[in-house]
User: Fold this.
Amino acid sequence: KLGVAHLVRFLGGRNDVPGFLLAADLLVHPAYHENTGTVLLEAMIAGLPVLTVDSCGYAHYVNEARAGRVLPSPFCQNTFNQTLQQMLVSPERLVWRQQGLQFGQEADIYSMPERAVACIEQLGKRDLNIQHLSFTQMMKPQGDCFRAQLGRRTQRILREGKAYFIKQHVGVGWKEIIKNLLQLRLPIVSANNEYQAIQKLQTLTVPVPTVVRYACRGWNPARLQSFLLTEEIAHQGSLEQYCQTWRQIPPTFTLKQALLKEVARIARVMHAHGINHRDFYLCHFLLDGSVDIAKCVKLYLIDLHRAQIRKKVPKRWLIKDLAGLYFSSKDIGLTRRDIYRFIQYYRQQPLHEVFALEPAFWQQVQQRGEKLYGKHQHSRNSLFTENS
Assistant:
């Protein structure tokens, strides 16, 4: 019906799979948004305990059969590693085996694919409206306006009980483009910048918003129209908000180090692959709201509309990003040792080697961060003076 028969090849089954399943100790299946996961059923009815994650469509059968462990989303590598280690030596493996075999005898295995198809069709219908709106409809005001600037607005919208953010670019005009060029800045004329940055960071294991739709219309850079639709992130607030009480109520050493490591990892991976953020502040990290931060640290990087992508990030843009982090962390009570640890995590080298190789670089980061902080304090003082 679709005319793609010449592009599809069915490889057929393998007759040696039962042997693998019978010889193994455990099936490890950390699926990523897999709709079914038939191998889970095959493992259970062969008596093989299963370790998987809840993003696999058949994972609930593992819980139903009590034939292994299912870890909750979002995926946390440390939790997965610990669970795997525990399961390999657990005396419960024999119990999981027996319960899997029993499930195979009692469950209606062969109707499960049909039920899976029904679920997939239902999910498709859920997002039908948002996926099939025209470009003109997507560019209309349709929700709560979070931010509005020259040529760009951000709205939060609800569709079928699900929340999204849409960034709409409506053209900045030649005046703004020329002004940016005279200041030796690349003007942001569409949502493509953010779309490209998100796509690349996703491949680099940096948590970012999930893109639902992106589109651009026009050829005149001053009047380009575009939008970027992303799923809302369930979060506990920004890292800036989370850390603002640290002076009064210091966090545990373990938690602080975990956060320092994750921020440093994101910065290191991003910069190593030619991306600089340009607005790299603590307020642009969101804490995942679906996990306990004391057990698993996961930070989403947002607001990538000014991000730049090259083969290699120039030194001045590295300094700008790192200075932004330093500036935005000035009031949260970090010690000199904390900053040194961040540098070690970022460079993945002993501190004495870092300072021996590039002392001037980190001095420039500090100087620029202090300058930003001074400007920020001055503007705050001016504001308070005017209000008094």
Summary: The mean pLDDT is 88. The radius of gyration is 25 Å.
